[in-house]
Amino acid sequence: ELGKNNLLAGKRILVSAGGTQEAIDPIRYIANRSSGKMGHAIALKAAQAGAKVFLVSGPVNLPVPFGVGQFPVKTAVEMKEVIDDFYESVDAVIMSAAVADYGVAEVADQKIKKQTSMTLELVKNPDILAGLGERKTHQKLIGFAAETQDVIAYGKEKVRKKNLDMLVANDVSKENAGFDVSTNEVTFIYPDDRVVHLSNMSKLDVAEHIIQALAEL
Ligand code: PMT
């Protein structure tokens, strides 16, 4: 079948996709522009490479790739719980989700009534990927970085800080790259500071390069 290979035969791969939704009250939430396209493409290509794939997605409007198990979550805290549960049993984690850096300090039980002005207090969410990096044993860890400037410099810093085996950095200020489009332009950054830039291509093709790179790791 088209696109099939055995690069990850028998491996267990956890992929995160989409953005998290941080509740304000029963009706409103804080979200970001992640569509889940990048993560779903990775899940598909990992499955086609023979892996058993666990896809942890924030709320997305995309079909689940054939043969992939999906675990839907809403908040960053929920995403962390599911990923932490899987961590010991997988060979690699590819963290393409746009996890909200902040959640709402006190989520209201009832709809918040109109006021002339209001202040919302935000608190820092746990950094899921940094936690995985700290507890890493046998797993390969691939992180993403969405930046609008100094992509390589910030990327190298993230590889070290989060103890990654590879980082996929995307300059989301570029046209046809990053959030909510079908194409992306990324740079792979390794712990030894090696940098591999890929030209603009479909997210499916980016996903194939990531699977190839993971197989080499
Ligand atoms: O979903 P699409 O519309 O296809 O868009 C794809 C994408 C732009 C969302 C994707 O390519 C991407 O860049 N994802 C990572 C976005 C991001 O949150 O980057 P960051 O630099 O803030 O985070 C760095 C890494 O830490 C990421 O792997 C992220 O998943 C992880 N993280 C971040 C914050 C947090 N609290 N916990 C985390 O695990």
Largest sheet: 8 strands, mixed
Radius of gyration: 17 Å
Question: Hetero groups bound?
Answer: ligand PMT
Which residues sit in consecutive blocks of at least 5 with pLDDT less than 50? none
Indicate the mean pLDDT.
Answer: 96
Order of helices and strands: EEEHEEHEEEHEHEEEEEH
Number of strands: 14
Question: How is this fold's topology laid out?
Answer:
Layout: E1 12-17, E2 22-23, E3 29-30, H1 37-48, E4 52-57, E5 69-72, H2 76-87, E6 92-95, E7 102-104, E8 122-124, H3 128-134, E9 140-147, H4 151-161, E10 166-171, E11 183-184, E12 186-189, E13 195-197, E14 201-202, H5 203-216
Parallel strand pairs: 1-4, 1-6, 4-5, 6-9, 9-10
Antiparallel strand pairs: 2-3, 7-8, 10-12, 11-14, 12-13
Helix pairs in contact: 1-5
The site of ligand PMT has 26 residues, from helix 1, helix 3 and strand 9.
Structural overview:
The chain has 217 residues and is α/β, with parallel strands linked by helices. It is built from 5 helices and 14 strands. The chain has helices spanning 37-48, 76-87, 128-134, 151-161, 203-216, and strands spanning 12-17, 22-23, 29-30, 52-57, 69-72, 92-95, 102-104, 122-124, 140-147, 166-171, 183-184, 186-189, 195-197, 201-202. It has an 8-stranded mixed sheet with strand order 5-4-1-6-9-10-12-13, with helices on both faces. A two-stranded antiparallel ribbon has the order 2-3. A two-stranded antiparallel sheet has the order 7-8. Bound molecules: ligand PMT. Ligand PMT binds next to helix 1, helix 3 and strand 9.
In summary, what is this structure?
The chain is an alpha/beta fold and 217 residues long. Helix content is 26%, strand content 25%. An eight-stranded mixed sheet has the order 5-4-1-6-9-10-12-13, sandwiched between helices.
